[in-house]
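Appendix C reproduces, verbatim, an entry submitted by the partner laboratory led by Prof. M.T., so that reviewers can inspect both the input and the predicted structure.
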Amino acid sequence: MSSTFTTSKAAVLARLQAFVSGLQKQFPRGQFTLDNTAYTTATLVQTLQSLIDAIEAVNAAQVSVKVAMTALRATVAKVGPVALALERNLLSMFGNAADTLALFGLEPRRVPAPRTGEQIAAATAKAAATRKARGTTSKKQKLAITGNVTGVEVVPITAPRGTTAK
């Protein structure tokens, strides 16, 4: 049976800082052998401090990325519609002039190829099948559909408005 533990960066950072503090207080000139490697207190503190510095650098980078992404979203919201309007304007001004549009990094709009007879017939058959499956009808056919309500009794209300019957 295996279990996984997820530890936050803050918890790891706090533990590492406690290790450094404890080593410096309890073993100022200590010697340790860890995984067949000899360490002094100074080298252990230096090693642990490098990991602390790396974690703090990641935290700072993540904060700056969040700030940069917020600024990017605000700029895109402000400038995006202007860029889109410019693109539309350039496409309408230069139409199919591919050389001129290429100067702006744009391509002319593609004209759709005309549909073949087989494609038109397939689309018509599909539309008819869809109408039949959904039960949709034309306006005239809808007007022809009527129904009678049976089994409903209508009881008139005789009390004047604003008064309640007790």
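The two ends are 71 Å apart (CA to CA). Additional entries are available on request from the coordinating office.
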